[in-house]
Amino acid sequence: MTDAARTLIWLLAGALLLLAAPVRAQGTLAVQASGELPGFRIEDAAPWLAAQMDKTGGIWRFAPRNGDSAAPDRVEWTFDLLPYAGGQVRQFIPMPNSQLLGRKRLIEAQVKLYIKGQYQTITLGQEAVAGGAGDPVLAAFIQQVTQNLMNGYAAIDMTPAPPRGAAP
Q1: Whole-model pTM?
Q2: Model confidence over 15-50: pLDDT tens digits?
Q3: Are the C-beta atoms of 28 and 58 separated by less than 8 Å?
Q4: What angle do CA 146, 38, 99 make, to 5 degrees?
């Protein structure tokens, strides 16, 4: 086989792969947040969330919501502080290193994706975080939940349903 024929075959194979790939929404999604996120006023959380979500390198860019109305293409974060159920050990003598461990709060995040104003998918996650923009655990948690959201959207079957009464 000649080099030209081999190149033509590779070009055709690449074109077939591009045509077979499902078309995904691309662009910028607005990020909005509600609830309680440790270390943030909820009004200040959206810019930090958008920056962390951009680090996942997905098919979208993320920007904090502008204005009071909901954007048609958006991600809605809802945070809840969960009760601590780990228990405690009664201490008769103070432990010298107990302050170094810091306090962590268990949070739950619910993330909904809307494209063109229509609900697409939801992702849930829980993590014990210290809170604030400097918490690496919180940043990793936000990035992981964002990745799960994008994977969930990619798993949605975009093929149209067959017409009613059609043979499968």
Answers
A1: 0.72
A2: 544 444 444 447 899 999 999 999 999 889 999 999
A3: no
A4: 120
